[in-house]
Amino acid sequence: MSVLEKFGVEIFTQHNIFERISVDKPFRPDNPAFIFVKTGSIKLKQHFRDLELSANMFMVTDPQTVYEMISISDDFQSRMVSYKREFISALSLKFNRLITYRYFRQQMNIGVPFEPDELEVVWKSVNFLKYILDSETEMTYKKEIVEHLFSVFCYQMAGIISKEDSNSMSQMSRQEEIVFIFLNDLAQHHTHERSVEFYAQRQSITTRHLSAVVKDITGKSASQIISLIVMNEAKVLLNSSNKPVSEISGILGFSDPYSFSHFFKKHLGESPSQYRNQFEN
C-alpha cells in the first residue's frame, strides 16, 4: 500500500517529484496537490497558457487538468504535497471552506506568490510532516499525528490564501465568472460535448456572448479552448495507456476512429498513431 493510500497524503521533493510529474509528455495528476518552489523555477503548460513557478511561489494542481512540463532550472528546490480529496474533506477545519474552495478553484492554475518568511514556516511544516511519514519508528498514533499535522498545514495555507483573497482577489468579475464556469463545465463534459452552444446553454447566455467573453479574458476563442482540452485528453490517453485508437475515439465521444484521427491530425499535424509511436521507444 502506498503512503498516499495509507495516510491520505504524500510528500515529494525535487529528487522524486518526477515520479508524479512526467518530464517528456502530457500528464494528468492522479490527485490534487500543492507545489511549492523555494529556489529556481519550473515551467508548465496547462489548459491554454504557460505557467512559470519561480522562487517563493506555489500552485494547486488538479486532476481535471492536463499539464506538460516545458523546462526546469538546475537550482530547482521544491516540495509537492499530494493528497486524496476525501482526506481534506474529512478534516474538521473551522475556516470558511466555501471561500477557500472557491479561491483554490479560481487560482489552481496560477502561481501565487509567498512572502519568503511565510514560505519558510510552511516549508518547515511540510518537512516535519514528511519526516513523520517517512519514519520507520513504530508510532501507535501515526495516522492521527499525520492528520493533525496535515490539518496544521491546511490552516497555514487557508490563512495565507484568505489574506491574499482579501487583499486583491475578493471577487471575480462577471466576465471571469463566465470563463470560470465554462472551464469547469468543460472539464466535466468535454468527452461528450464539443459544441460552444452546449456550454453557452449551461449558463443561459448566447453563444456569441460566451465566445466574446472567453476571447476577451483568455485571448483564445471558446472553440479553440474546447479543441485544446480534447487534444490534451487525447494525448494523455495515447501516451499513458495501451488502449487502441478506436477505443480512445469512443472515450472522447467521436462517432468513429476516422473522425477522431481527422480531428487530431487537423490540430497536431500528425495522426494519433504517429503521435503515440514517439513514446514507444
Task: Please describe the topology of this protein.
Blueprint: H1 3-7, E1 9-13, E2 33-39, E3 42-46, E4 49-53, E5 57-61, E6 67-72, E7 77-83, H2 85-90, H3 97-107, E8 112-113, H4 116-134, H5 142-168, H6 174-189, H7 196-202, H8 207-218, H9 222-240, H10 245-251, H11 257-268, H12 272-277
Antiparallel strand pairs: 1-7, 2-5, 2-7, 3-4, 3-6, 5-8
Helix pairs in contact: 3-5, 4-5, 6-8, 7-8, 10-11
CATH class of the largest domain: Mainly Beta
Return the CATH architecture of the largest domain.
Sandwich
Query: Kindly state the mean pLDDT as a whole number?
Result: 83
Estimated structural class: alpha+beta
Helical content band: 40-55%
Lateral strand order in the biggest sheet: 1-7-2-5-8
User: What is the molecular shape?
Assistant: globular
Radius of gyration using CA atoms only: 20 Å
What is the strand tally? 8
- The run of helices and strands is HEEEEEEEHHEHHHHHHHHH
Share of residues in strands: 5-15%
How many H/I helical runs? 12
Our measurement of the CA-to-CA distance between the termini, rounded to an integer number of angstroms, reads: 30 Å
Count structural domains: 2
Instruction: Tell me the name of the CATH homologous superfamily of the largest domain.
Output: Regulatory protein AraC
**What characterizes the major β-sheet?**
5 strands, antiparallel
Enter the CATH topology name of the largest domain: Jelly Rolls
> Low-confidence parts, pLDDT < 50 over ≥5 residues?
94-101
